[in-house]
Amino acid sequence: ATGPRQSNSNFYEIRTYDIKPSKMKEFLEMVNKYLHYRTAHSELVGFWYTELGAMNKVFHIWKYDDFAHRTAVRRALANDKDWQGKFMSVALPMIEKQHNEVAYLVPWCQLGKPPKEGGMYEWVTFQMKPGGPALWGEAFRAAINAHVNTGYTTLIGVFHTEYGLLNTVHVLWWNESPDHRAAGRHSAHEDARVVAAVRDSVRFLESQQNALLIPLQCSPLK
């Protein structure tokens, strides 16, 4: 896992905000209205809010060339009067908690796109045993590919944390609908190839959790 990572300095910052329940609607409206001030400074991959698996949370992913690029962007944002005055000063009181992680795409995955707009995204977080991809990478890759090969779901990206809780892998999937996902998973659980790959991978698994995400109007991934 380290070779491709060292030769490519691009990384992704994954931000999770807990929003006050009474302010969720207002916060999402503000994001849709003013996020163009933020995206003028760096590339947004996607912006979602949670529908199932967690409540009153938003997820957004930003791409950076390297850490110097992120530093320059953060400095520019601090001096952007439109961003600070129209969005940040109003939005910050609506946020209860912020969390961020720095992650790389795993070497065997390119960032994908859904076949069409609409549908739903699923964000699955796997906490793997200490040791990194050298220990569990191949088994994890086989389990992901086994699900991809069933054809019921679309893989968007697999992210491995560099800062944050280590040995964490986030997998972003796209499905046409929650019912389409449910039917596909039911079929996958009866597929001997999927079952075998998952059994091999869970030997290295500590825990996992997932959330159903809905993209905002302003999100590049819709």
From TrEMBL:
<dbReference type="InterPro" id="IPR051557">
    <property type="entry name" value="NipSnap_domain"/>
</dbReference>
<dbReference type="InterPro" id="IPR012577">
    <property type="entry name" value="NIPSNAP"/>
</dbReference>
<feature type="domain" description="NIPSNAP">
    <location>
        <begin position="121"/>
        <end position="220"/>
    </location>
</feature>
<dbReference type="Pfam" id="PF07978">
    <property type="entry name" value="NIPSNAP"/>
</dbReference>
<dbReference type="GO" id="GO:0000423">
    <property type="term" value="P:mitophagy"/>
</dbReference>
<dbReference type="InterPro" id="IPR011008">
    <property type="entry name" value="Dimeric_a/b-barrel"/>
</dbReference>
<feature type="domain" description="NIPSNAP">
    <location>
        <begin position="12"/>
        <end position="110"/>
    </location>
</feature>
<comment type="similarity">
    <text>Belongs to the NipSnap family.</text>
</comment>
<dbReference type="GO" id="GO:0005739">
    <property type="term" value="C:mitochondrion"/>
</dbReference>
<protein>
    <submittedName>
        <fullName>Protein NipSnap 3B</fullName>
    </submittedName>
</protein>
